[in-house]
From TrEMBL:
Catalyzes the release of premature peptidyl moieties from peptidyl-tRNA molecules trapped in stalled 50S ribosomal subunits, and thus maintains levels of free tRNAs and 50S ribosomes. Hydrolyzes ribosome-free peptidyl-tRNAs (with 1 or more amino acids incorporated), which drop off the ribosome during protein synthesis, or as a result of ribosome stalling. It is found in: Cytoplasm. One of its GO terms (biological process) is protein quality control for misfolded or incompletely synthesized proteins. One of its GO terms (cellular component) is cytoplasm. It catalyses: an N-acyl-L-alpha-aminoacyl-tRNA + H2O = an N-acyl-L-amino acid + a tRNA + H(+). TRNA binds at residues 17, 78, 80, 126. Keywords: Cytoplasm, Hydrolase, RNA-binding, tRNA-binding. This is Peptidyl-tRNA hydrolase. InterPro entries: Pept_tRNA_hydro, Pept_tRNA_hydro_CS, Pept_tRNA_hydro_sf. The record marks 12 as: Discriminates between blocked and unblocked aminoacyl-tRNA. The record marks 105 as: Stabilizes the basic form of H active site to accept a proton. The keyword RNA-binding applies. GO terms for molecular function: peptidyl-tRNA hydrolase activity; tRNA binding.
Amino acid sequence: MPHAWLVVGLGNPGPTYASTRHNVGFMVADELAGRARAPFTAPRGMRADVCETRLTPAGMGGVGADAQRVVVIKPRTFMNDSGAAVGKASAFYKISPENVIVVHDELDLDFGRLRVKKGGGDNGHNGLKSIRAALGTGDFYRVRFGIGRPPGRQDAAAYVLATIPASLREDYAVEASRNADAVETLIAAGLEAVQNRFNS
């Protein structure tokens, strides 16, 4: 049976943060769950909203002998403590770090760009830092959703926690779909294939 995958969309819980740049990981998780037509549930003790599905060549939510099990989570912790949810989920579903994919906002990539890589530093991202500590390694996949640097002298923290302007929400939805495509390609075809297709 193929290995299971854990896809972690990073963000902050609650309506206050729902439409902020820091929550693009949640947007991608929602997109994947929507494609699978599978609901998020809140299992006791998991500290995350969880969607269990499978990926086949036909897409998310497929069935068959070649289906790969995919667990999509949105931590219910705040970003800085994301590792608590990821550690619990990876242990419960017996998924090793090399099958963990973390989708997160990336200041160092312009909006409209994405990159997929395995391992690397945290680059000041507290969600990644927390996950590295929980898993005991940084050797997991990262899907980096470009949000760009703030204009002028705006503080980076204020920028990522600001609500996405209404004029850009449709563009962000398009990018969330493209990042979800990258997650599916990574699981189905591997790192080299997804980098060749999506890294910009």
